[in-house]
Design a protein that fits this description.
Blueprint (H helix, E strand, L loop, with lengths): L2 H16 L2 E6 L1 H39 E5 H7 L2 H14 L8 H10 L1 H19 L1 E5 L2
Antiparallel strand pairs: 1-2, 1-3
Helix pairs in contact: 1-3, 1-4, 1-5, 4-6
């Protein structure tokens, strides 16, 4: 990986940490299957009352499993090399007017510029939503 890309990835890690950004992986299909299975199992065991109890239990389980949350920093480090390359190329377009000689300068400029920071977060949100069907948000 070229040095500019390494700098950009390090800056993104610093930004993700400072802003406490997380990624929510959407697993709605898995949650729905679990909900239906629990309702069916409840119906088989306890009739209509079992179906209601199974559906309730399945719903709770489905909601708990439908959103896997990881820190954005962890996700960035785990990205495949090709995906990192695409992300860095997108970031380079945004940072085309930002000059830096070392990664510390880049991090300082990005973290010190509220407008640029917001633009980068928006770009991250868009990138992860479009390419990986993941939602980037602030940890709560």
């Amino acid at each position: 990986m070229e040095q500019k890309n390494k700098d950009i990835m390090e800056m993104l890690l610093a930004l993700a940490t400072e802003e406490q950004l997380v990624v929510v992986a959407k697993n709605a299909a898995k949650g729905a299957v679990i909900g239906f299975l629990c309702a069916g199992l409840g119906m088989a065991i306890g009739g209509s009352a079992g179906c209601v109890a199974g559906a309730a239990a399945g719903t709770v389980l489905a909601v708990a499993m439908s959103n896997d949350i990881k820190s954005l920093s962890d996700v960035l480090m785990e990205l495949a090399p090709g995906t990192k390359e695409v992300l860095c190329n997108v970031m380079k377009k945004l940072l085309k007017d930002v000059f830096w000689q070392c990664v510390d300068t880049l991090i300082e400029r990005v973290l010190g510029d509220g407008h640029l920071k917001k633009l980068i977060v928006k770009l991250l949100e868009s990138f992860f939503e479009e390419t990986m069907k993941m939602k980037v948000k602030t940890a709560e």
